[in-house]
Amino acid sequence: MNLNYLFSLLAVTVLFLVPWVGVDILGKKELFGLIIPYFAVLIFIGGFIHRIIHWAQSPVPFRIPTTCGQGQSLSWIKQNKIDNPSTTMGVILRMILEIVCFRSLFRNIRLEYREGKHISYEWEKWLWLGALAFHWSFFVIIIRHMRFFTEPVPFFIKALEDLDGFLQIGLPGIFISGFVLLAAVLYLFFRRIYIHQVRYISLASDYFPLFLIMAIAISGIIMRYFTKVDIISVKEMTMGLVTFHPVVKEGVHTIVYVHLFLVCVLIAYFPFSKLMHSGGIFMSPTRNLANTTRVKRHINPWNYPVPVHTYEAYESEFREKMKEAGLPVEKE
Amino acid sequence: MADELKPEELLNQTRQNHQSNPPITSWMDTPTIIRKGMYCYASNPKSVEYLGLPNARKWNPIEDDWKLPDNWQEIIHKGFKERLERFRSIKVFMDICVRCGACADKCHFFIGTGDPKNMPVLRAELIRSIYRNDFTSAGKIFGRLAGARKMTLDVLKEWWYYFFQCSECRRCSVYCPYGIDTAEITILGRELLNLIGLNIDWIATPVANCYRTGNHLGIQPHAFKEMIEFFCEDIEEITELKLEPNFNKKGADILFITPSGDVFADPGTYTCMGYLMLFHYLKEKYGLEVTWSTYASEGGNFGFFTSHETMKRLNSKMYAEAKRLGVKWILGGECGHMWRVIQQYMSTMNGPADFLEVPVSPITGTKFENAKETKMVHIAEFTADLIKHGKLDLNPSRNDKYKITFHDSCNPSRGMGLLEEPRYVINQTCNHFYEMPTNTIREQTFCCGSGSGLNAGENIELRMAGGLPRANAVKYVHEKFGVNMLACICAVDRAALPTLMEYWVPDVGVIGLHELVANALILPGECERTTDLRGEPLSEEEGE
Ligand code: HEM
Ligand code: SF4
Ligand code: SF4
Question: Nearest to residue B172, comparing CAs of A273, A68, A288, A69?
Answer without folding.
Answer: A68
